[in-house]
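Why do we care about 3D structure at all? Because function follows from shape, and shape follows, mostly, from sequence. That is the central idea of this module. The next example makes it concrete: a single protein chain, its amino acid sequence, and then its structure expressed as tokens.
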Amino acid sequence: MNTEILQRVVAEWLHGTEMPELTPREQAYPALDRLKRVLAVVGPRRAGKTYFLFQMILELLVGGRVARNEILFVDFEDYRLTGFQPDDMEQLLAAFYQQSGKPPRYLFFDEVQHLPQWSRILRTLHNTRRYVIVVTGSNAKLLSSEIATELRGRYEDCLVLPFSFREYLRLRKVAWDRSLLSTPQSGLVVRAFDEYLKCGGFPEAAGLKDETAKRRLMQMYFDTVFYRDVLDRYGARARHLVDVMMRNMLEGFASSFSISTFEKQIKAHGQSGSKRSIANYLRHLEEVFFVAAYEKFDFSPRKRMMNPKKVYLMDTGFSLLSGAFTENKGRLLENVVALEFFRNRRRAMYYKGRSECDFILQDGTKPTQAWQVCWELSAANEKRELGGLAEAMQKLKIAKGGILTYNQQESRSFDGVEIEIQPVWKWLLE
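And the structure:
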């Protein structure tokens, strides 16, 4: 590669690139000065992974603990780096040394999948033990499962999803504290939650005020997942089946998805698709962070695998693309709760016995919490909602649980079980 290009890329970083204005993310990550492995920042496209790298860099620079000329940031989507080869890495590091007078201590590589033989390059750099290495990659090319295979024993990952509700409030500059949540001023928080619930937390979409513009942006994200993440991997043969699956999930999110039932439905309409193909595409849609699929609770791994899964959209903003004539606010509420468990890497499943309970959380092998979600607890549904939660807690010997609603807060006793009811927006902030 042309040395002058590498010199220019390095010079722009050291002397020209200004840090953008950031909405700080709450995602924890390991202390970089003690990082012994490659840190891979994974998550959906457009969720803010690049800005999260900038946040890390700013935190290194604050207080002068680390100087800018000890950090190398490279965006490998830069068109000037097209054709970059493994051997060019030495030239890139040499260009940095020439301009800074010292080798870099920290390497931040954005969209590293554009590097041919990226895993070989990262292994070689890591083996020198000279650098702290942080990378991001588009999810179709740099999935956590692929990193685990390519960098076995040499990496750890950090999950970055669209904004949490706390981060969304920070973006909207809505100040809050625990005392505020019990006053009429909490209406500001609830109004922001209404927006968050309907339009989701993708950073760029969250910055738009017009719902039509949000919908257009979410359609672009949907198309990117479909064309770049799925078809690039599976080819044209997947086109129709995956399109039907993804649109089915837009309509039926926060509900059960049975591979067998879906296969029968498409065959009844004269379309082809085997159970194995459907299972493979569902797994891939999870890997590229389009959906999160929760298993039915069972102590038997085999039974969990055989039962239908509940599928949740990775951002409620995708629901703007649904063709449904009525908005199901209860399912949006449940979807938000599912994403919060996913964000915090909690092992969650749904329960189905005589009644149903939306979420069972496990710590290790032991179920420890049970949560039910509904828009409003009323005379028409309280027996079903309270009964499903009480059954799950009694059957699985769970002491902690409750019902999450849109805006109710009280305590109930049902079938000998004390049940706390609270608003989802308040639960998200706690």
